[in-house]
């Protein structure tokens, strides 16, 4: 008879149509499924109590209508639910029973404490998910609803802590609910606590990772333009050094040939005239001048290309204006020390680029010295050739004029 109550059936159909037509889709938790679940739990819990048909009817009507106010508002929806109930019953229902249903609906407020058997049954039925295996799934629907309707956003850890607080603060008040669902509620508390511990560990790891990657701690990554600049400058310096070495090689080759020829000629006793001593010596002066200038040109050319691995004071590793990238510096270190210094450079981009800048500066300083010595070599050689040629011209003018 309780399951076939005509007014309860009519109310169930009315509530279903009302929620289907007027309840917003954002209410993914407080919908008809929750209402039907609460009514079903009321029916199951009521079987353990000797309720009269009238009390059972009042309880079922309160369960069906207790969340209908969500069709109009979230805050104070219980009062709206009472009004919808009264509009449905109109004047065809005893006022005394309407007042009982109103008290039952208002007792579902979160701040209310249930009083009496009917209110206690409705309270436990409304929170029956606490003792269900699918508590976490239903709670996640409530989280989505709060985000969409109330604009309340929670992290996974915050929501897990919120649900643990809910499980601890709320408990079943009827003996029947405590017996049937109390164990599952305690299991849900345990699972929720384990979930919180896991999330806290994950959040700590994430926090450490984020702190390492913050702008203050994260090594500044230079752009591709800077890397291209350093690559181009290094290539430019290497090319200039190669050109200088080639020029020095030319000077060394030419002047050593000249020196060899002059020495060979004088060593063989060759003279340019057999008439007298002056005639033999008149060509010695320009030849000797050519020999001296060639020798000086060769010396300056050799100095420009001579390798210098001496580590000067400015290259000391303890100073900021030194670079470990200079081979004369790292050659002083043991392998382990060199690997350690290179690892530091890889971890600190600023120091890496500073070291490369210092290295480029000293490469430029070496190039300046190379080209200065080469300039002296070419100028001396050019001057020697000119003076030698002029000497021969003058001698020939006086000799055959």
Relevant terms:
2 domains; 401 residues; Catalytic domain of cyclic nucleotide phosphodiesterase 4b2b; rod-shaped; single chain; 72% helix; mainly alpha
List the helices and strands and how they pair.
Blueprint: H1 6-22, H2 32-46, H3 53-65, H4 77-89, H5 95-106, H6 117-126, H7 135-150, H8 156-169, H9 175-212, H10 224-267, H11 277-281, H12 284-305, H13 327-330, H14 335-347, H15 349-400
CATH superfamily of the largest domain: 3'5'-cyclic nucleotide phosphodiesterase, catalytic domain
Would you count the extended β strands for me?
0
Strand percent estimate: under 5%
Q: Into how many domains do the coordinates divide?
A: 2
Which regions contain 5 or more consecutive residues with pLDDT less than 50?
271-278, 311-319
Largest sheet: none
**What is the first-to-last residue Cα distance?**
154 Å
Helix count, DSSP H or I runs of 4 or more residues: 15
């Amino acid at each position: 008879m309780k399951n076939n109550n005509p007014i309860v059936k009519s109310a169930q159909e009315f509530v279903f149509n009302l929620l289907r037509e007027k309840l917003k889709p954002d209410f993914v938790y407080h919908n008809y499924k929750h209402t039907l679940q609460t009514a079903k739990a009321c029916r199951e819990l009521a079987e353990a109590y000797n309720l009269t048909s009238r009390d059972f009817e009042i309880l079922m009507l309160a369960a069906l209508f207790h969340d209908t106010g969500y069709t109009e508002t979230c805050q104070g929806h219980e009062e709206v639910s009472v009004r919808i109930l009264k509009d449905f019953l109109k004047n065809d229902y005893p006022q005394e029973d309407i007042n009982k249903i109103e008290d039952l609906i208002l007792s579902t407020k979160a701040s209310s404490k249930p009083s009496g058997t009917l209110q206690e049954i409705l309270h436990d039925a409304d929170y029956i998910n606490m003792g269900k295996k699918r508590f976490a799934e239903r709670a996640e629907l409530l989280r989505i609803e709060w985000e969409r309707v109330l604009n309340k956003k929670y992290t996974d850890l915050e929501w897990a802590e919120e649900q643990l607080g809910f499980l601890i603060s709320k408990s079943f008040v009827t003996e029947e609910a405590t017996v049937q669902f109390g164990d599952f509620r305690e299991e849900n508390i345990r699972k929720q606590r384990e979930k919180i511990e896991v999330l806290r560990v994950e959040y700590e790891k994430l926090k450490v990772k984020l702190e390492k990657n913050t702008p203050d701690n994260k090594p500044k990554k230079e752009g591709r333009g800077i890397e291209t600049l350093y690559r181009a400058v290094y290539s430019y310096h290497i090319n200039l050094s190669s050109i200088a070495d080639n020029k020095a090689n030319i000077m060394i080759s030419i002047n050593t040939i000249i020196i060899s020829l002059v020495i060979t000629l004088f060593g063989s006793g060759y003279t340019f005239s057999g008439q007298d001593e002056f005639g033999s010596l008149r060509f010695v002066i320009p030849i000797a001048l050519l020999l001296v200038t060639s020798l000086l040109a060769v010396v300056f050319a050799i100095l420009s290309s001579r390798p210098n691995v001496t580590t000067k004071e400015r290259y000391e590793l303890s100073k900021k204006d030194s670079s470990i990238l200079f081979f004369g510096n790292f050659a002083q270190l043991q392998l382990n020390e060199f690997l350690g210094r290179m690892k530091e450079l890889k971890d600190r981009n600023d120091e890496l680029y500073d070291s490369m800048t210092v290295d480029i500066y000293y490469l430029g300083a070496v190039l300046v010295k190379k080209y200065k010595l080469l300039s002296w070599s070419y100028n001396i050689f050019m001057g020697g050739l000119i003076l030698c040629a002029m000497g021969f011209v003058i001698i020939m003018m006086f000799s055959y004029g």
